[in-house]
Amino acid sequence: VFPTQGAITQHWQSWCQKAAPSSLCKCLLCSSFHLSRVEFVKLAATYSTVNLGQGFPDFPPPDFLKEAFSRAVSGEKHTLHQYTRAFGHPPLVKILAQLFGKLLGRELDPMTNVMVTVGAYQALFCCFQAFIEEGDEVIIIEPFFDCYEPMVKMAGGTPVYIPLRPKAPKEGKLMSSADWQLDPAELASKFSEQTKAIVLNSPNNPLGKVFSRGELELIADLCVKHDALCISDEVYEWLVYDGKEHIRIASLPGMWDRTVIVGSAGKTFSITGWKVGWTVGPNRLLQHLRTVHQNSVYHCATAAQDAVAQGFQRELERYGKPDSYFVQLPRELQQKRDQLIQSLVAVGMKPIIPEGTYFLVADISEFKSEVPDVPDSDEPYDSRFAKWMVKNKGLAAIPLSAFYCGAHKDNYNSFIRFCFAKVRHTAGLHPSGLAVSTLHGTQGKNWGFFCTNKCSEGGEPAGGHKLNSWC
Ligand SMILES: Cc1ncc(COP(=O)(O)O)c(C=O)c1O
């Protein structure tokens, strides 16, 4: 319908001006992340041969899940083609209650402590719509997943931002996402009479930070002290590396009653397109989410829920065992992470080692001689760097400043985010799985994407050629 991106923006602008208060107009359109994300997706499609910007796996989901979906749609049970229970297909809420009951060490009622949503995105939307009223403040930890800010504003709330502050790594060591920490006094200063909730995202997108028990206790104590809710986005709960433990804040003293856990089958089983998510929490909170859900989406796709339920059944039976997908997936992703770290170091970036998720943030400040900064520019340096990289090196990534509020963008503008859940571009570019460096070349001007497969084309440099569609 819309011939260009500009036409979409124009349509929304005129709609917002007519139909919405100016604060809503601002949140939908002036949030630079939304504009820059659209811009970056477009740029990636136009120029990039290697897209490590977008946050989804380029490998297939596990066979057991695909088979479960096939059975659901082609089996005898024709009811799976019809509406199911509005707040979650019974087999799915039952298995989620069983699994999370085990993880949280408490008995959960599938009907009142679990609600299925259209991905974690809708779960988040339900939370903000249900709990946030005009004048409420919501604390958001930066860098943050982009939708929190507009969703809080759409509900009439005011986001209050607190950045994770990086501390210098040990001499000669790469920084870790664990080096990005909250300042306890600063965090305490953000809580006020108006604080309704804090949004916690651990493991965190984009940094890959996995909050430690001490950090979670700090947040929990403040929530209890100020009677605040915790919206705990745990979509990357199974993607944790180097033996780190994902701790659920709802399991800490005083937190179950004030926490809603948000989860995603998309991230859990590498099926982002199925859009199955959930919330887990006390009935006193979930009853309000049910009201929002019932009056917006109401039902989620039955067959997809059925297949996800079967996937969880399988995982529960194999919990902690080597053939569990929850064990295998992080093991494979950790290898891709390490491969990407090596490649980035080789071209002169300074990767921040993520403890979790499939994202990695790299420091690009060394590139200022190659891609000079433009003083007084409105555009953050990382955004210009990412555009330069996609045009000149054929590589797409997302500037980290896009994950900060307008006031803080310029403080964190020399980093870019990569997604390493990409088989072809991190482990091997050719479907045959031949070893290929993602970023191959000598440090300095010559780096770029070169295929080291023995394919018939090219020959530059050092045994490789520039990527092309064949690769
Ligand atoms: C932190 C975070 N929360 C929520 C979501 C949304 O998940 P879903 O695809 O299940 O809606 C994402 C997706 O990228 C995410 O990174």
Please supply descriptive tags for the structure shown above.
four-stranded antiparallel β-sheet, 38% helix, binds pyridoxal-5'-phosphate, 471 residues, alpha/beta, 15 helices, globular, single chain, seven-stranded mixed β-sheet, Aspartate Aminotransferase, domain 1, Aspartate Aminotransferase, domain 2
Structure description:
It contains 15 helices and 17 strands. The protein is an alpha/beta fold and 471 residues long. It folds into two domains: 31-55 and 325-466, Aspartate Aminotransferase, domain 1 (Alpha-Beta Complex), CATH 3.90.1150; 63-317, Type I PLP-dependent aspartate aminotransferase-like (Major domain) (Aspartate Aminotransferase, domain 2, 3-Layer(aba) Sandwich). The protein has a seven-stranded mixed beta sheet, with helices on both faces. A four-stranded antiparallel beta sheet has the order 11-12-15-14, covered by helices on one side. β7 (195-201), α9 and β8 form a beta-alpha-beta unit. The longest helix has 22 residues, at 325-346. The chain is globular. Pyridoxal-5'-phosphate is lined by residues 55, 119-121, 145, 201, 205, 233, 235, 264, 266, 272, 277.
What does the oligomeric state look like here?
single chain
Q: Indicate the mean pLDDT.
A: 86
Radius of gyration: 22 Å
Domain count: 2
Query: Reading side by side through the largest sheet, how are the strands ordered?
Result: 2-10-9-8-7-3-4
Keywords: Aminotransferase, Pyridoxal phosphate, Transferase
Pfam family, one: Aminotran_1_2
Pathway: Amino-acid degradation; L-kynurenine degradation; kynurenate from L-kynurenine: step 1/2
Protein name: Kynurenine aminotransferase 1
